[in-house]
């Protein structure tokens, strides 16, 4: 019995799972009831389906990452070589490629395992995923695509967090350098950051420019201007 599920664990938190591109050649080889199942399953999990002429059977774009799939729905024990030859060819074209194979019988499973090593496949290149039936196989495809998208999103968040930490560290260094100028305190350094900008810009700023753009006193502005121009200041012991 064909079943369509609305699985919230597969759905993207934003309500949009992504885009699924299905090979028109693969579609034409399947029973209409199974194509109806795939369409319903994708729709229920917020994936937009496009039928296009592509080399893999599916390409999912989820969370900014593309994942390609070969979906073998009718494993032929008498001619297993075509699957592995195709997988070898496509793995060089796609960074993320999975081969999902339906193996409902022990004979098919034994044939697949034997053929996998016979054709010299490298484990995980690409990854082969067995399934007991068509619906289970397609559900695994959608779950893998979604998981890849989540990992990509988490990676982006992690990078943003790292950049933010670097920015904070850079600001600490900036404050440390500027506040090392004699008589310049932390709030003065913050004022210079917000109005003048980088250390290079502060070093080039004249006393008049500093007075015009900040509320720093004339004495401190003179000290800042002299600090970056007079060696006895910038080579002083306060700079380590």
Describe this structure in words.
Helix content is 52%, strand content 15%. Mean pLDDT is 78; it is low at 1-16. It has helices spanning 24-28, 32-44, 81-91, 106-118, 134-178, 186-195, 199-204, 207-213, 218-227, 231-234; strands at 18-23, 47-52, 58-62, 65-72, 97-102, 127-131. Strand 5, helix 4 (106-118) and strand 6 form a beta-alpha-beta unit. It has a six-stranded mixed sheet, sandwiched between helices. The longest helix is centred in the middle third of the chain and has 45 residues, at 134-178. By secondary structure, the chain is α/β, with parallel strands linked by helices. The chain contains ten helices and six strands; from the N terminus they run E-H-H-E-E-E-H-E-H-E-H-H-H-H-H-H.
Task: State the main characteristics.
disordered N terminus, alpha/beta, about 240 residues, about 50% helix, six-stranded mixed β-sheet, single chain
């Amino acid at each position: 019995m064909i079943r369509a599920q609305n699985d919230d664990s597969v759905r993207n938190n934003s309500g949009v799972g992504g885009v699924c591109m299905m090979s028109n050649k693969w579609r034409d080889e399947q029973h209409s009831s199974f194509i109806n199942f795939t369409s319903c399953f994708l729709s229920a999990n917020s994936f937009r389906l496009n039928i296009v002429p592509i080399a893999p059977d599916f390409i999912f774009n989820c969370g900014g990452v593309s994942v390609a799939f070969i979906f073998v729905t009718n494993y032929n024990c008498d001619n297993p070589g075509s699957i592995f030859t195709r997988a070898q060819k496509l793995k060089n074209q796609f960074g993320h490629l999975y081969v999902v194979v339906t193996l409902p019988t022990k004979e098919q499973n034994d044939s697949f395992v034997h053929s996998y090593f016979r054709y010299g496949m490298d484990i995980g290149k690409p990854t082969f995923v067995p399934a007991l039936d068509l619906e289970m196989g397609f559900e695994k495809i959608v779950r893998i695509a979604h998981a890849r998208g989540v990992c990509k999103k988490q990676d982006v968040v992690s990078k943003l967090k790292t950049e933010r930490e670097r920015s904070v560290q850079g600001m600490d260094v900036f404050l440390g350098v500027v506040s090392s100028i004699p008589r310049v305190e932390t709030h003065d350094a913050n004022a210079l950051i917000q109005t003048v900008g980088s250390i290079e810009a502060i070093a080039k700023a004249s006393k008049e420019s500093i007075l015009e753009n900040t509320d720093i006193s004339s004495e401190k502005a003179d000290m800042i201007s002299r600090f970056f121009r007079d060696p006895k200041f910038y080579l002083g012991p306060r700079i380590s």
